[in-house]
Amino acid sequence: MTKAVYLYILLFAVTLTSCASKFSKVLKSKDNEYKYKMAENYYAQKKYAYAQQLFDELFPYVKGTSRYEDLFYKNAYSYYYQKDYLNAENIFKTYTENFPGSARAEECEYMRAYCFYKQSPKLELDQTNTSKAMSLMQAFINQHPQSAKTKEATELLELCRSKLEEKEYVSATLYYDLGYYRAAAIALSTLMEDYPESDKSDDYKMLVIRSYYKYAGMSFSDKQQERYEKVISEAGDFAERFPQSKYLKEVNDYKTLSINSIKNIKNEQAKTATQR
């Protein structure tokens, strides 16, 4: 470690200790006006952890005064800037309930939804917060169609929808990878129903057909014909819905294979009947 680096670390540590010591004195002060002034200073300096602790203490002191709304607003952002989105969401929500006529109410409605968006987890985890973000973003768009934030809310809504679609797709393809072809086909069909406007609809439909074809092939002989007929039916539906799809040839191949398989099944049945 160089001398310059050591001095920098030492200076940083001393400064940090000094700030903490000063804040401790502010926190212990009985002078609420002084605390309020320091809370405002900390907030202006973006020292949100200090500001938030003081704001929390000052709520009973400023309640019922002209300062109350502004403190409420800044306290919400103090949590938000610390990335404590859970508490920030709750305070933004309470702000809109307490001050519905405020000029800041619309902003806080949006920020509440945005806090849920920020809490949206990785794809493999539970997506409750993603769904809540979608619900609140949609409500915001409906209530404030002319808002400057409506475009951003719409974009975030689409991102959330894509995330949920991707999660559902991953779950469906897991069935396929594990060899549960009927379950995969059903899950993929449900996915198409849930996201009818998806630009991946023909991908999903192709996988439905492929899954049903594999399911038919591994079925007992007395069930195969009706299951190949299902493939043919799905292939016909695909051709009607996606006539320009890049998968059309593959779909027609599965249809032809299924028709031929049914012919073979019928030939075998005829042979068996003749032998009897």
Automatic annotation (TrEMBL):
| PROSITE patterns cross-referenced by the UniProt entry | PROKAR_LIPOPROTEIN
Matches recorded under SUPFAM superfamilies = TPR-like
Q: Which Pfam families match?
A: YfiO
As given in the record, the signal peptide range reads: 1-20
Source species, domain of life: Bacteria
InterPro entries recorded for this chain?
Answer: BamD, BamD-like, TPR-like_helical_dom_sf
Instruction: Point out the coiled-coil segments of this chain.
Output: none
Q: Keyword set for this entry?
A: Cell outer membrane, Membrane, Signal
Domain Outer membrane lipoprotein BamD-like spans what residues?
A: 33-214
Name this polypeptide is given: Outer membrane protein assembly factor BamD
